[in-house]
Structures are given as structure tokens and as C-alpha cells.
């Protein structure tokens, strides 16, 4: 029996498990291969939904479905947390001390929010990167009629690099729709010398911010927050007053990765094309936990899952794997409440940012609905 273990049933792990169930259908049914998906949460969460929760366009419940409804019946699904990886013994361990042997293993554990590393952030900042944060922000925004909203990207890398720009353009439009924009100042801050890591998106966002009276602060590296005074202090010595702070918290990968010596800060050091760990055999990483030079995005996790499914299936059959990942990334970006743009790029390419339009906004909303089919591996 060839044992394939996937840890993490988010976008990457679920697509991968379903692709493998399809590619290795015959071998699984003959009892020659097992595909096991181990995941901590019985609910599968589609995080892009959280962008819409602060504006009342979606609820937190819209973001999740039971994972067992999404996974092919040929996959052995196990709800539980993996607490250790021994890549020499090819063994995973669990909180009760039990272990599981594997022949090929994939880490798909995503990214974690780490607000506690910035003093005052947990008390003074809001965000829309998780269910509780998105609901609290919705309640704050509903009551917010005047003052200063600061959207601050605190650390990179973070999930969906475009989402903070999208939120800023959406909040501007949302306040205008409600006749409140004249009484609200909006500021967007970013740690480097431009508004976004990718130059073409930075230029596009900067032009829109100017048009919509959004103040842009660059080289803005947050050091601490004073929640009582309502002040963000930066390493560069700036003090910025806020009435509502929306801050993208620093992210980290998984302790499993650091403890197993697979990479730094919890991100797995992988070959960017094969997605195989550089320091251990038969170990792969996909999605946010993989340290590759592109966005931490669901589309990346999805494309990587396809490549890793092909490579694993080849190895399970004793063949040489040939599939490789070229960095393909696609993303719809909201430019307000009813217009969006779309970008696509590969490793080393600068994306072309299309003129925002209503059809692209509808396409983004349509994609969000069809996600539940893509997670099943159907699209
Ligand atoms: C607000 C927001 C908007 C976004 N918008 C977009 C967008 O428009 N387009 C886009 O492409 N991407 C977007 N993203 C990013 C996208 O959601 C992530 O990149 C994607 O979810 C990554 O998938 P993943 O499989 O790596 O991790 P996740 O989907 O985060 O899944 C990780 C899974 O691993 C499980 N897990 C973790 N540790 C363990 C363990 N030790 N044992 C067992 N299970 C474990 C978790 O419970 C979870 O189920 C957005 C993200 C946010 C927060």
C-alpha cells in the first residue's frame, strides 16, 4: 500500500485530495494506494468571503461548508490536528501520542494571523482576515459616521496581497453611497516605498487613491499601537491618529514546519517549480505555507495542487514526475462596491491591470459562488 498523507483541508489540501482521488481512482479502489486528508477543522473555510462581511454583503456562515461534503468518497478524511512531523522516519504524530507513517506527504496548513507581535494591535486594531474580526469590523463600520479610518498593512507576506487595496476602495465607495464620505478621512499605509509589492498594482492603486481622496503613506512600518490615544507609531518615528484602525496583522506559517526544520518562520522552503521540500524527501508544500515568490492566494494553492497531484500520482505508479508549477496566479480585484479588475501573471512577470468594470465585478462574485465546485476538483 502506497500511503499519501495531506495535512490541511483548506483550498490547497481539498483540491489536491480530490485531484488525487480522481487520478489514482483505479489504484485506490484496488487497495494499492491510500489518500488521507487530515485537517483540524470539520468546516472548510473560503476566506475571500470575509472581504464582503464588513459591508454586510456576505455573512461569516456564507464562508464555510462541512469538509466532508467537499471531499471525494475515495479520500480517507480524518478530523484532527497533526502536532509533529518526522521526515527521517516518514511519520506524523498526533496530540494523543499516536503516529501515522507516510510514503509521500504534503503540507497544506495555510497561514496564521499573529497580531500579538505588535504591542496594542489586538486591543486597538480591527481586521477582516478572519470570521470574528470581520464581524466586529462590520459592527464598527455600521456606526462610523465621522473621523479617520486608517487601513494599515503591517507585515508582509500576508494572505491575498490585493485585499487591503480592495477594502480601501470599497470602504471609500461604501461611505459615498451612504453620504458619509465628506466627514471621513481615509488613509492607506504600506511598509515599502509604494502602495503594493507589485509595481503595476501599486501604480494602479496610487492613481485611484488620488482620484478618490485616499491619503497614501509609504515606508510605514508599524512599531506599536496606543489604543487609548488612538495612535499608530512607526519604526520611522511617525505618529498617526486614527478613529478606526483596520490593520492586516503579521502572518506566520506553521510550527510544524519550524519544528521539523523544513523552513523559517513556519514557511516551507521548497523548489519553486516542483514544490518539493529542499531538505527532506517525499515532502511537498502547497498554498500559503509554501515559500514561493508569488502571492499567498487561493488561485496559487489551486494551481499548485494540480501540479503536486500529477507529481505524486507519477511517483505512486513508479514513474518519473514531470509536472511543474510556473507561478501562475490569477486574481479579481474589487475597485469599489460594483467594479473590479482582473490580473494574471507567472513567476517574474508584472501583471497588466485592466480597466475596472461592472462585468469583472460580477465575474468575481460568480467565481466566489463557483468556488464550491472548484474545491471539489470539478473546475
Ligand atoms: C480576506 C481575504 C480575502 C482573500 N481573497 C482572495 C482572493 O480574492 N483570491 C485568492 O486567490 N485568494 C484570496 N485570499 C487568500 C486565500 O484565502 C488563501 O491564500 C488560501 O485559503 C490558501 O489556501 P491553503 O490551502 O494554503 O490554506 P487554508 O485555506 O488557510 O487552509 C489551511 C487548512 O489547514 C488546517 N490546518 C492548519 N494546521 C493544521 C494542523 N497542524 N493539523 C491539521 N490541520 C491543520 C486548517 O484548519 C485549514 O483547514 C484571501 C484571504 C483573505 C483572508
From TrEMBL:
Recorded GO MF terms: oxidoreductase activity
InterPro entries linked: FAD/NAD-bd_sf, FAD/NAD-binding_dom, SQRD
Domain FAD/NAD(P)-binding: 3-294
Gene3D superfamilies according to UniProt: FAD/NAD(P)-binding domain
One Pfam assignment: Pyr_redox_2
Record-given protein name: NAD(P)/FAD-dependent oxidoreductase
Organism in which the protein naturally occurs: Natronoglomus mannanivorans
